[in-house]
């Protein structure tokens, strides 16, 4: 277990459609490590997760709206997947602004499964090497990224670090890479 006391992580999701374990597992593990993790969504209330994009999952409280977040207070941006979540989040202007602010300031971004769609939409995958759910590969390549099929990929190119993984089966490696990044 890494010691992450004093580290602040911002998680961006929509209010419905995030893949349950891609939110739950990082939340639990990173909080257990001592990190302060804030879940931000477009609206207050709760996040309704899904399991496998079809079945209803658990609900999670929203700590803050995306529009009210002061992104400069956070050490890392986390983007869970879930097809519905990621597809809606990529069009959210506040989420786009937040992702761009993290990259431009050199702070790390971690995206899982379909989570890189927000980075595709903002042009942030250009010149980066990353992985994702296989169906996102063409979008990444068309946006100037180099797609690889591996459990976790850490790419420090372009003066900011991008951590990516393919699916919920990669969560241990994904969270481990986040822990390593925050303790380096």
UniProtKB/TrEMBL annotation:
Keywords: Glycosidase, Hydrolase, Protease
A Gene Ontology biological process term: proteolysis
A GO term for molecular function: hydrolase activity, acting on glycosyl bonds
UniProt-listed Enzyme Commission number(s): 3.2.-.-
Pfam families: DJ-1_PfpI
InterPro entries recorded: C56_PfpI-like, Class_I_gatase-like, DJ-1/PfpI
Keyword Flavoprotein annotated: no
Domain DJ-1/PfpI: 7-179
PROSITE patterns xrefs: PEPTIDASE_C56_PFPI
Family in the record: Belongs to the peptidase C56 family.
Xref: NCBIfam families: PfpI
Protein name: Cysteine protease YraA
Organism: Kocuria varians (Micrococcus varians)
Gene: yraA
């Amino acid at each position: 277990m890494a010691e992450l006391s004093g580290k602040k992580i911002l998680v961006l999701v929509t209010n419905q459609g995030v893949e349950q374990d891609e939110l739950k597992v990082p939340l639990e593990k990173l909080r257990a490590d001592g990190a302060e993790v804030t879940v931000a969504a477009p609206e207050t209330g709760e996040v309704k997760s899904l399991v496998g994009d079809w079945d209803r999952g658990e609900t999670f409280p929203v700590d803050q709206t995306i529009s009210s977040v002061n992104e400069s207070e956070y050490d890392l941006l986390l983007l869970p997947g879930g097809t519905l979540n990621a597809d809606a989040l990529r069009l959210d202007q506040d989420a786009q602004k937040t992702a761009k602010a993290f990259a431009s300031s050199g702070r790390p971004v971690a995206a899982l499964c379909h989570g890189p769609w927000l980075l595709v939409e903002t042009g942030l995958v250009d010149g980066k090497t990353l992985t994702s759910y296989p169906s996102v590969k063409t979008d990444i390549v068309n946006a100037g990224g180099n797609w690889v099929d591996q459990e976790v990929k850490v790419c420090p190119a372009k003066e900011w670090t991008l951590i990516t993984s393919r699916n919920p089966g990669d969560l241990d490696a994904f969270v481990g890479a986040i822990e390593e990044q925050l303790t380096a």
